[in-house]
Amino acid sequence: MSSVEASYGAFEGRGMSRRCAFLPLVSAMTSDLKPGLHYLQTLRVDDSLTVPAMATAFAGFGDMPPVFATAFMVGFIEWACVEALRPFLSSHERTVGTHIDVSHVAATPVGMTVTADVELVAVQGRKLRFKVSCSDENGLIGEGFHERAVVDHDKFMARVLAKSGQTGSSPQ
Predict the structure, then answer these.
(1) For residue 166, what pLDDT is reported?
(2) pTM exceeds cut of 0.70
């Protein structure tokens, strides 16, 4: 099991300008979200987070170097964003990833600690944009941007079930 520590902190954000039309925020709680929200989360890399661990789903990864997998770095970044947003969401709200644009510039071996540093840089209706980076004890391993959207869980699951041809209430 990977060890996880998280902390909240705020600092002044950088402004971004994008023209997009989005629905209004779905709750008063999310209206408290402002650029500048900052969140750090750490993760110790173990064998389950390496490239060869991906071989259970994608056979071609079995003979790759045992370093922190890009796919897991992306998942870790998303997780840090989810945790940063959690205190601002109503019980019926979730966020879903809509875009990821990150580089993975350095390998991290098993045993090292990776820190995800995420900063909310833009809020446009339900759309949230984060500047993200990951580093290990030796420095930067990845950086870029990640976008998420606030959704109503029940409505979202109803659309997912309809898409799959299922009916009934959404799972909790």
Answers:
(1) 75
(2) yes
